[in-house]
Amino acid sequence: MTGRSVAAGALIGVGAAGFVDEVVFHQLLHWHHFYDKSTPAVGLVSDGLFHAFSWFAAVIGLVMVADLARRRGLMARALAGGAFTGAGAFQLYDGTIQHKLLRLHQIRYDVDIRPYDWTWNVIAVALILTGLWFLWAARRTA
Amino acid sequence: MHHDVAGQAVAAVGLLAALGYHLAATRLRSRGDRWPVPAQAAFLVGCLALWLAGLGPGTDHGTSTDAMVRHLLLGMVAPLLLVLGRPVTLALRALPAGPVRRGFVRALHSAPVSVLVCPPVAAVLDAGGMWVLFRTPLPAWAASRPWLALLVHAHVLGAGLLFSAAVCQLDPVRRRYGVVMRGAALVAAAAAHGVLAKLLWAQAGTVDARQAAMIMYYGGDIVEIALAAVLAAGWYAAGGRALRRGSAGARCGTGSSRCLEVAHGDDRLRPVQ
């Protein structure tokens, strides 16, 4: 049940990170661009896969939580550990591989991008460390 | 502009399907069987979506945006709603025993159908057809050839139905597929849909064409989330049945295969597999 709680958390974390990316940065702030002329084809494929997977992961992760609760096997720390690690991993992949290497789109346009990139990726690492701390705590209590 | 034969055909299919479904559900209820109202409502709304896709506003002097909305209705929204109505199950229960029903069952169990409802095959047919439609001059050829337009519409609807049925797996087919394979097919097809929408946006020369690409991208997302929800709900319900079987088995001792349970969505008793 611990493993399934971690998996459910990781799916929800990826889904939540994708949701924040879409709603906050694309729709509310309009910082991210829908399409960037400098994006190579592999960047579009990576974006398409992660975009589709994040919605799917959110739905499946939430239903997995309902299933674990029904079986009385939901481990809160394991779930939180999976969620923070999943969200951080997605954020880090988005901030390094997708934004920088694949040049999908930048965080914001017409500004000095460096502080944005640093903030983005430092938050990603902080999320991963928080998740690992929860996972460590979950193992200790298990 | 010529008469939109393909659009009229789609609307007619929607009307006929609604009529047939309603007659079958009424037949079931008149003999005392139950048929869920939500399933019937979903199917009838799906038929309405077909009618709108065929003859809805903007069919004769179409902008790209209008065409895209109709395309989403025909290829994604209507198929999902129609599949939620579980029309195959209804037909199997409503058809009287005889050559028609036997032929229907034989067709359902045939090798081609078993291959077509395999999730990766259905995903390739659906997403592949979409790429051909948007990346070749096919729409331009179809604009002046009604029979080709009819064929394109039939493929969009048919492939959409096949894909939705393969992902949701609500109707009985001989070969069942697991959640992982169906989920992977859904994510892959949704990714192909999103990538194509962004390519269309990049190549769009007008505001209208860009708006159409945006509608394709986000409209596809909404239907993808709905498909994922149906997939997840099916998995959750199957887990619940397994849990109940487990507790029933505990009550009956080790010979749980002799226990009976009320099958999901069915008022008849079935032996546990």
TrEMBL record, chain A:
InterPro entries documented for this protein:
DUF2243_membrane
Q: Which domain of life is it from?
A: Bacteria
TM ranges are 49-69, 76-93, 118-138
Which keywords does this Swiss-Prot/TrEMBL entry list?
Answer: Membrane, Transmembrane, Transmembrane helix
Protein name in UniProt: DUF2243 domain-containing protein
From TrEMBL, chain B:
Keyword terms of this UniProt record: Cell membrane, Membrane, Transmembrane, Transmembrane helix
Query: In its keyword annotation, does this UniProt entry include Transmembrane?
Result: yes
Record-linked InterPro entries: Caa3_assmbl_CtaG-rel
Primary location class: membrane
Q: Where in the cell is it found?
A: Cell membrane
Membrane association type: Multi-pass membrane protein
Top-level division of the source organism's lineage: Bacteria
Q: Does the keyword Cell membrane apply?
A: yes
| Residues passing through the membrane, by range | 6-25, 37-56, 68-92, 113-134, 146-167, 179-203, 215-238
Name of the protein in its database record: Cytochrome c oxidase assembly protein
Q: Which organism is it from?
A: Luedemannella helvata
